[in-house]
Amino acid sequence: MGCSAGQLGSSLLGLWLLLCTWGCPGSAELRAPPDKIAIIGAGIGGTSAAYYLRQKFGKDVKIDLFERGEVGGRLATMTVRGQEYEAGGSVIHPLNLHMKRFVKDLGLSTVQGFGGLMGIYNGETLVFEESSWFIVNMIKLIWHYGFQSLRMHMWVEDILDKFMRIYRYQSHDYAFSSVEKLLHSLGGDEFLGMLNRTLLETLQKAGFSEKFLNEIVAPVMRVNYGQSMTINGFVGAVSMAGADSGLWAVEGGNKLVCSGLLQSSKSNLITGSVIYIEEKTRTKRTGNPTKMYEVIYQIGSETRSDFYDIVLVATPLNRKMSNITFLNFDPPIEEFHQYYQHIVTTFIKGQLNSTLFSSRALDKFDLSTILTTDNSDLFINSIGIVSSVTENNPQPSTERGHVWKIFSQEILTKEQILKLFLSYDYAVKQPWLAYPHYKPPEKCPSIILHDRLYYLNGIECAASAMEMSAIAAHNAALLAYHRWNGNTDMIDQEGLYEKLKTEL
Ligand SMILES: Cc1cc2nc3c(=O)[nH]c(=O)nc-3n(C[C@H](O)[C@H](O)[C@H](O)COP(=O)(O)OP(=O)(O)OC[C@H]3O[C@@H](n4cnc5c(N)ncnc54)[C@H](O)[C@@H]3O)c2cc1C
Ligand SMILES: *[C@@H]1O[C@H](CO)[C@@H](O)[C@H](O)[C@H]1NC(C)=O
Ligand SMILES: *[C@@H]1O[C@H](CO)[C@@H](O)[C@H](O)[C@H]1NC(C)=O
Ligand SMILES: *[C@@H]1O[C@H](CO)[C@@H](O)[C@H](O)[C@H]1NC(C)=O
């Protein structure tokens, strides 16, 4: 009995192996891997895509990464008096698991502690001031806002909980063909609904008070996204999570993750600007005519081109930013016109004129971060003392003149700087097209632009953050891999949460 069952088993296995030579869904892929893949953009999106593509397609695929500026993109540091400070994406949430994994894999270290006290200024006075005593803070918050801040914490927690499902799906190799399908798999219609409504509507419906919204939530949106509560509810939740405790950054600068991923993925960096992408039929070494993408790029005044099986675009597609033209596609590849918010980061080493914010004597002023409400009429969104990328905490206050980081809508004039500071000895600025200007209802750009042409930054329509780009990169790598191998059962699966709950 045992013997015949064994025989039956092994002959079934033989049959299965035979059948699978012609392709079994979700299992052994037998199509040869692609020869060459291009990624455009070496920010966290492009470099993490290189990492995941290498993982999926193996060591023989040639991966070219195009970058016209610096590796890191919107992750960048600026030097102030010999010390480097984060000028773009700066803080990472403790539950951003992809970023955590990269740092661990690459052997990088982290810095923590964006300590100090925070105050909120409404144009006339500080409407809220943190205390260094936890219990005093709790009493103050409850005194001012009832239990609103506790409820806010629970609201964010609930969304974060659902959001975290993505890690399980991705670790089981599941991919999604659109941002909407990805979000739906995490939080169903609730998440999609959040893209359709403003944060203000969402939170008003949830019963939060005007006072709490104006004095706490709006200032957090201003510092994190340079916008008001008219942004969509989803990015609003991401932004509120960015006010959690336990935030961290990479020692030496967050951009080190990008250069690290570039290296560890053994990709080839091409320092050039991609201008056109066109599909063409090429005859490969094997002699078969194959459809490939020609990527045309400029290095200085020289124009060059190369052919690729798969292309990933990892930079916002619009004229002002990437300015890539898709030639001769039929039907044409749609143009995206997502408007990106202009934000200026300014670093100033100097002595703040704190009487601008509070009547308290200069030496009694102990706030290290000042956020502003929407109606503050001030020319800045926020101002705060920062520590360099190698320090765990801001320098002791014995030394006169901290380094302050200011976010503003426009470049600050000298008069404006002199209004804020009693004296200063150094100022540098970096203007950004920072993140989408959110205006729900959001319609997210496609991920699949064409057969083997993928777009990562559509995910920014939901929320722009380092971890979002890493999630989009992982998804695009899995999607490219499954579509290459015809594993349709790994794409857009419904009911994944229930399905994977029982599987450990
Ligand atoms: C001021 C500021 C503060 C922020 N704060 C935070 C924060 O605290 N936490 C957080 O998680 N996120 C934060 N973000 C958002 C975060 O930085 C971004 O979401 C993330 O870095 C985007 O990465 P990306 O790789 O998708 O795009 P990018 O970093 O923009 O990378 C795209 C790259 O493509 C290159 N490129 C563009 N066009 C071409 C072309 N035609 N040819 C070749 N190369 C091209 C660009 O030079 C760029 O390097 C902040 C952003 C800004 C600007
Ligand atoms: C969101 O709005 C779009 C139209 O902009 C609509 O098609 C979609 O059904 C809405 N989704 C939800 C979940 O409300
Ligand atoms: C975009 O690139 C085209 C050439 O491909 C150029 O003519 C145009 O001026 C560029 N636009 C911007 C806004 O840089
Ligand atoms: C500091 O700011 C206050 C309020 O704007 C102003 O009255 C005062 O003159 C400033 N102090 C100095 C020394 O500039």
Automatic annotation (TrEMBL):
It is found in: Lysosome. It catalyses: [(2E,6E,10E)-geranylgeranyl]-L-cysteine + O2 + H2O = (2E,6E,10E)-geranylgeranial + L-cysteine + H2O2; an S-polyprenyl-L-cysteine + O2 + H2O = a polyprenal + L-cysteine + H2O2; S-(2E,6E)-farnesyl-L-cysteine + O2 + H2O = (2E,6E)-farnesal + L-cysteine + H2O2. GO terms for cellular component: lysosome. One of its GO terms (biological process) is prenylcysteine catabolic process. The keyword Thylakoid does not apply. Its EC number is 1.8.3.5. GO terms for molecular function: prenylcysteine oxidase activity. InterPro entries: FAD/NAD-bd_sf, Prenylcys_lyase, Prenylcysteine_Oxase1. It comes from the Eukaryota. Its main location: other. It holds the Pfam family NAD_binding_8. Residues 1-28 form the signal peptide. Its cofactor is FAD. Keywords: FAD, Flavoprotein, Glycoprotein, Lysosome, Oxidoreductase, Signal. Residues 128-493 form the Prenylcysteine lyase domain. Belongs to the prenylcysteine oxidase family. Prenylcysteine oxidase that cleaves the thioether bond of prenyl-L-cysteines, such as farnesylcysteine and geranylgeranylcysteine. Only active against free prenylcysteines and not prenylcysteine residues within prenylated proteins or peptides. Involved in the final step in the degradation of prenylated proteins, by degrading prenylcysteines after the protein has been degraded. This is Prenylcysteine oxidase 1. It comes from Suricata suricatta (Meerkat). The gene is PCYOX1.
